[in-house]
Specification:
This protein has a five-stranded parallel β-sheet with strand order 2-1-3-4-5, sandwiched between helices. The protein is of the alpha/beta class. Helix content is about 35%, strand content about 15%. Residues about 1-20 and about 175-180 have low confidence and may be disordered. The protein is globular, with a radius of gyration of 18 Å. It contains seven helices and five strands; from the N terminus they run αβαβααβαβαβα.
């Protein structure tokens, strides 16, 4: 296959490299470690649909899961690592699954993302329910969407900020928009 020469890069026409890079997005995926497979499924779904997702979240290897479970890793070490990983991302995605609402580290990550000024987007995993939405996501979330690549990317980029139920139906956000009086 041959390509006809076109205008030089930088003269109003994007290069092929620029077009392929335009969908690259840096995210941090906050999740309960029992939902690690959903992290893989989510990034795979987005990649299949042409999105280049760079995920900086932590997925503990079995040996580290044991160390975490036994309290052998100090909380301050985890907080420092999570802050560093999260600061690199433009958006924090929160996987909303069966036990997400009860995970203190997911709650901490959402609150830290808010402090860092990150866009916070919740996405229901398959089987996730409204009862699984963490309180901090209700307080600070920018959007909450169903498992759908287009809805998720629109929420990540800020093109749309819907709050949906697990089936995709519209739902009102729990927190109201900020208002001020003069």
């Amino acid at each position: 296959m041959a390509f006809a020469p076109g205008p030089k890069p930088g003269r109003g026409t994007p290069t092929l490299d620029a077009l392929s890079m335009s969908k690259r997005t840096h995210v941090f995926i906050s999740h309960h470690h029992a939902d690690d497979t959903h992290v893989t499924r989510l990034t795979s779904m987005l990649q299949r649909n042409g999105y280049d997702i760079r995920n900086s979240s932590i997925r503990a290897k079995p040996a580290n899961k044991e160390r975490l479970k036994n309290g052998l890793i100090k909380d301050e070490v985890l907080r420092r690592l999570l802050r560093r990983k999260m600061s690199w991302a433009s958006t924090v995605i929160v996987l909303v699954g069966a036990k997400t609402h009860a995970r203190p580290w997911v709650d901490w990550e959402i609150r830290k993302a808010n402090e860092l000024g990150k866009r916070i987007v919740g996405v229901f995993t398959r089987g996730g329910t409204e009862a699984d939405v963490p309180a901090a996501l209700e307080d600070y979330g920018s959007a909450l969407v169903n498992w759908n690549s287009n809805s998720l990317m629109d929420a990540i980029t800020g093109r749309d900020s819907p709050f949906e139920k697990p089936g995709g139906e519209e739902r009102a956000p729990v927190h109201g928009s900020a208002t001020s009086q003069c």
